[in-house]
Amino acid sequence: MSSTSSSVLALSSFNLLFFTQVLTVLSSTIKYNEYATDRGGNVSIPCIAQGNIMWVKEHGSNSTIVQTGRVLVLRNVSTADSGIYVCFASQPRPSTTPVIVASVKPATSTTTSPASKKEEPVQNEQNDSTESPKDSEQEEMAYQAFQRTRLTVRTVPGPVTQLYFKASTILGFLIWRFNKTQSGGYPVRSFTAEFRNVSYSSPPANASFEHVWSRMDPINIAPNVRQMEVYRLAPNTTYEFRIWANNELGSGEVVTTNVTTLPETKEEASLTVLESLVAIGSMQMARRRRKTGRRKKRS
């Protein structure tokens, strides 16, 4: 917290509570602006007012003073720094607009003997009775809101939601949802999805062994796409899929899901064998036709 007049720092908890109640009244009359910065960056926000300045961050009923001084400086910002900051400046009383009043009384310490301690309450009563209204006004500080600033901290994208894989025996669909409010402050450029086989006939000797990830095609999935088809899977095999969003700052949070493809039935196996035989027969017939064509040309 930067140094400033001690009167600014003498706000009581009662005054802070009163401050939170006055914010809604002042929000329609004070200046409003917005700032945005990337996570890890620095930002400086000047207040339009002059004099003794304090910055308060809104936290509902728990608003707190974060800095004093005309310029609010935040370094190496994180998402926790996002929010609304209100600039308050000291104003002379009385005022026709709602203000925050902070009564500041100078702290005095004196050393007294045991005999003089008994006379102290009487002395205080006399001081209170002789204190002039003018002195009382000088000891009171009034603070008025001048500026309300919303700070947005931009980040990499958040996670996709409702990720699941609808599988058959040898193919399936990877399906997901994405909330645009999770874009991180920049437009989502693309999605990236990968999968790998995580089935083992026997546990690997090396516990750190993992199958290689295969990237789904296209590599950069369009930002408006919400499902991808996957081919050439093996029946009755467990696969792990993962996907993440990308924006200007980089790759977002990775989300994974596991799924096991359906086992192949005898009918499907027979059909697969038949299709393979048909394909082989077609290739052989094509070769014979090419050979016959060559012989005719020679003759």
Structural class: alpha+beta
C-alpha-based Rg, rounded: 36 Å
N-C termini distance: 100 Å
Q: What would CATH call the class of the largest domain?
A: Mainly Beta
The CATH topology of the largest domain: Immunoglobulin-like
The biggest sheet, with number of strands, parallel, antiparallel or mixed sense and barrel status, is: 6 strands, mixed
- How large a portion of the residues is in β-strands, by DSSP E? 25-35%
CATH homologous superfamily placement of the largest domain: Immunoglobulins
The number of E-state strands comes to: 16
Order of helices and strands: HHEEEEEEEHHHEEEEEEEEEH
Helix content bin:
10-25%
* Count of spatially separate domains: 3
Mean pLDDT across every amino acid position = 76
Count of DSSP helices? 6
Keywords: Signal
InterPro entries: FN3_dom, FN3_sf, Ig-like_dom, Ig-like_dom_sf, Ig-like_fold, Ig_sub, Ig_sub2, Immunoglobulin_dom
Region (Disordered): 104-141
Biased composition (Low complexity): 104-115
Tell me what the structure shows.
The protein is 24% helix and 33% strand. The chain is of the alpha+beta class. The strands form four sheets. Strands 1, 3, 4, 6, 7 and 8 form a six-stranded mixed beta sheet that branches. A hairpin with a 6-residue loop joins β3 (53-57) and β4 (64-68). It is elongated. The model is unreliable at 1-28, 99-127 and 129-139 (pLDDT under 50). InterPro entries: FN3_dom (IPR003961), FN3_sf (IPR036116), Ig-like_dom (IPR007110), Ig-like_dom_sf (IPR036179), Ig-like_fold (IPR013783), Ig_sub (IPR003599), Ig_sub2 (IPR003598), Immunoglobulin_dom (IPR013151).
